[in-house]
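[agent] plan:
  1. take the single chain provided in the ticket
  2. run structure prediction with default settings
  3. attach structure tokens to the ticket
  4. add a short note for the reviewer (M.T.)
[agent] executing step 1
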Amino acid sequence: MKIQKTKTATQILPSNTATKAKSWTMLNGDSEQILKNFPENHFDSVVCDPPYGLSSDTMDGQHVARVIQSWMTNDNLETKGRGFAGAEWDAFVPPPSLWKEVFRVVKPGAYVAAFSSSRTDDLLKLSLRLAGFEITDTVAYILRGGFPKYVDLGRAVEKRLRQWGHTPPEAHNDTTAIRTDLSGQGFLQSIQRKKTHGRSEQTVVKPSHDLSKRWADYHSNLKSAFQPIILARKPAWSSTIDNLIVHGVGALNIGGCRIPRADNDDAEEGLDSVELGRYPANVIGELGEDNSKFFFNPHNAISKRPNAADKDLYMSEGIKNDHPTPKPVSLMEWLTRLITPPNGLVLDPFAGSGSSGIAALHEECCFVGIELDPRYHELASSRLRNCENTKSAA
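[agent] step 2 finished; step 3 output follows
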């Protein structure tokens, strides 16, 4: 589609006279239904952390095939599994029907930045594609501090053999250890307000049978040390250039996300220089001191705030943020700045405790968040209110 030559610039350029009545809005309910109340081509970007679908259902190839078949016929096969920490809402990734509503309400050329899991990002990408989005890139968010969540198979074999009647030799001794309970419902209970992680003395089974010794220190998964962040885009109107002129979105803010370079850093010609800074990459996070100058790290001094305080940032006094999976505000700021035009309107259909909204306000953008859980909706609203009041007082 080409711009008609008979139209003038004032006819096709977006109006700058409309003002947004409120810098942020939090809505409580089902995102797919709530988004139906918004007009087409309304939002400038989407920054979100949707459900990852970490249930047994996404490990079942036949069930996954049936879900995808239902997607292809504009249906949503019901999934009853439990995902992260036993949560029903994490049974599967959001379906195309939800992303189609997101697609409808974002402007042509608008970007989506959506966190996912290394195990299920293929399903989220497919869901986005079926809704009409283009997958433009995947950012690897490196977390060196991740910890393995899976059992030693040698110990598991030993336990099963003992259930079947195996008796360890008299000289064999198991050990005990004080451990933090970070699994299942215990994880959720341990992060409730004013509570700490539960700790208890637990028996550490040691292999005594030749078969369990054979499988000692074998596991079924690697340590999770990165998260994929999917970058998707609603197709541009006409061309990217025309889209930028007409809709004001459709480009990545490279200049605002460059990594500063020191004067003594070897400068290359072209896109990387001491003056410009390094071009941002599709790898970010904790890559070690030798690599820190090449990649954005939301956990170092660039974040401007201690990372440990991110979770309770703008929480009311005496109340702690008990959301299980908040993201660093500095990371959400970087993503918002990368894909959102100045003073743009950001959408998060899975707002959680509101970190994406705080990032939007820090970046001088407006924000609309939707959260299904009434308690987290209240928590996010409180944080955004405190953030707005703090900015107004500054």
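[agent] step 4 note for reviewer: The mean pLDDT is 83.
[agent] ticket updated
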